[in-house]
Amino acid sequence: MSEPRLELVPVGVGSAIAAPGEAQSSYLVRAGAHAVVMDLGSGTFSLLQSHIAPEDVETLLITHLHPDHCVDLMALRVYMVWGPGSGNRIRVVGPPGLRARLSAFSGSDAWDAAFSFEEFAPVEGSIDLGDGLVLRHHEVTHLPPTNALRLDRAGASICFGADCAPGPELAELASGCDVLICECTFGADPVPEGVPHLSARDAAAIAERAGVGRLLLVHCQPGHDRDRALAEARAVFGGPVEWARQGEPVAL
Q1: Is the pLDDT of residue 41 over 80?
Q2: Which of 7, 51, 87, 191 is the most exposed place for a label (fewest CB within 10 A)?
Q3: Taking the mean position of all CA atoms in its chain, how far away is CA 103?
Q4: In degrees rounded to 5, what are phi and psi of residue 157?
């Protein structure tokens, strides 16, 4: 059996107030010999180690500066400088101010020994990650700047919407992709006015507009009825809809 063109492992699927048993945002993508991680929220560094040696991650992509998407970089720094990863560096691509934000919290030493920091291009762009793996990114409406991400290789594609409000950008980036990972912070309930997040119906409407193959819902706050959210998403999007499950691979 041939290896998958892309393999997605949801490392953490929780929101800023993750439910019991959930870690916050993080997604491992394997592409042949390459390994890319999208986000590294609280609790995800320890779980990541059950899937890959952290020093074997080639590129770490941080969508935005909210802690539930980047805070475990502090634990990863310790691992990479004073732990088993010593002597290696990981490429980190993220928003402007990421290094400064992390340094302000835990001190400025050793960040450049652990990581090679780069910034996403403004608004949108693409990065060739090697071996046919291409990253495309586009800013979406959330904490400025927040980048949704898309990875393509050998005709397979995964799009991660990060956190966002409804808008055309994510549907355009995700157009025709195999898997869309999309937040639904408020489940089936309405999103409070002015809050840049999505409901399950919003996520499904983006998936339908983009014509994606499969929708994986993530980032739902505790207290929302997830069965009702799933049913509402399925009523809007004609393709398969599931909750992403931590540690359960999706092969393409």
Answers
A1: yes
A2: 87
A3: 22
A4: -150, 140
Burial class of residue 26 (count of CB atoms within 10 Å of its CB; 0-12, 13-18, 19+): buried
Q: Choose the weakest-confidence range: 1-5, 10-14, 232-236.
A: 1-5
Number of Cβ within 10 Å of residue 67's Cβ equals: 14
* pLDDT tens string 65-122: 999 999 999 999 999 999 999 999 999 999 999 999 999 998 888 999 999 999 999 9
The first and second tokens of residue 50, run together, are 């059950």
In the chain, where are the structural domains located? 7-244
Cα 38 from Cα 166, distance rounded (Å): 21
Number of C-beta neighbours around residue 63 at 10 A: 28
State both tokens at 22.
């959930």
pLDDT at 49: 98
- Do 58 and 68 form a contact (C-beta atoms < 8 A)? no
Residue 69 CA to residue 23 CA, distance in Å, equals 10
Architecture in CATH for domain 7-244: 4-Layer Sandwich (3.60)
